[in-house]
Amino acid sequence: MSPDLELVHTRQDESFRAWVHDYPHTVAKWHFHPEYEVHVITASSGKFFVGDFIGDFGPGNLVLTGPNLPHNWVSNLGADEHVGARDLVLQFSRPFADRMLGAIPELSPLQDLLEGAARGLQFPDALGRSIIPLMQDLAQAGGARRVVLMMSVLEQLASCRERKPLAGPGYDLDAQRHMSSTINQVLSCIRQNLGGNLRESDVAELAGMSVSSFTRFFKRHTGCTFIQYQNGLRLNEACELLMCTELSVTEVCYRVGFNNLSNFNRQFLAHKGMPPSRFRALHRLNDEVRAVA
Fold first, then answer.
1. How far is CA 105 from the centre of its chain?
2. Which of 89, 189, 229, 274 has its CA 20 to 30 A from that of 219?
């Protein structure tokens, strides 16, 4: 299931967009956009989707998504039910963020926050609930006051150390551009051979290292072992196939390089918090909601 592109309209006399919408709504679907987004839920509960992550949400759910990261919130409602002002949203572009950081040195703590947004960041519901009045004021404010309110929101997010990344580390590999050419070759080799029986010794030979040296090298660059990284990519690929194809769970298992169905199910449950069949069923629900919107 491919996400839809949302066109975020920012007025010519404004630097960012802050607004409120009900649920259901035309933008409440599986979608992406080039802007960063701070998203707070005021009412209802259900499932939310960020990249390959699926979680439960309730009032106070607070998430920051980065550019082009697909996302959606699906409330548990009856066919004719409606939730007013369910979503409070702040959206701003990467160029705007770059200009802010370049012009105001005091905003440097926002850099880590915005970099983490590439995978999506979830904050404690208590912080979300406390920010709701601020976001409501921001949606109504004009002039310099709205800039002050926006900065207050971002400052609270940057100061929170309990934020949790959502999408898997392999969901978007753009971060690897800062790595050395050797690690890029290694990562490319792993990705191109996901469905095969690529061993760590094979990749160590490609890198011109002993296995023990390669193990340390790989862990230093990626933060995980070769097997953990390989399985993570395989699970990301499995998520894509479960979302976008009609292949059976068994076919997906072998297509992405697992040679044992029980091990695939166990790994998927450990990483995604649910079995593959449940993951597919929830994304079909997501698709159905998009079709109705």
1. 28
2. 274
Residue 176 structure tokens: 């690897």
Model pLDDT, residue 183: 75
Strands 121-123 and 46-50: unpaired
Tell me what pLDDT residue 177 has. 41
Q: What is the mean pLDDT of residues 196-214?
A: 91
DSSP letters of 34-88? SSEEEEEE-S--EEEEETTEEEEE-TT-EEEE-TT--EEEEE---TT--EEEEEE
* Residue partners of 213: CB distance under 8 A and separation at least 6: 204
| All residues at 6 or more sequence positions from 238 whose CB lies less than 8 Å from its CB, including other chains | 252, 253, 256, 264, 268, 276
Q: What is the mean pLDDT of the segment spanning 54-67?
A: 96
Is the pLDDT at 293 greater than 60? The verdict is no
What's the Cα-to-Cα distance from 86 to each of 44, 54, 92, 142, rounded to whole Å?
7, 19, 20, 22
The token duo for 58 is 């309730």
Question: What are the residue ranges of helices labelled H in the chain?
Answer: 94-103, 110-116, 125-140, 143-159, 181-192, 200-207, 211-222, 226-244, 249-255, 261-272, 276-292
Whats the size of the chain, residue-wise?
293
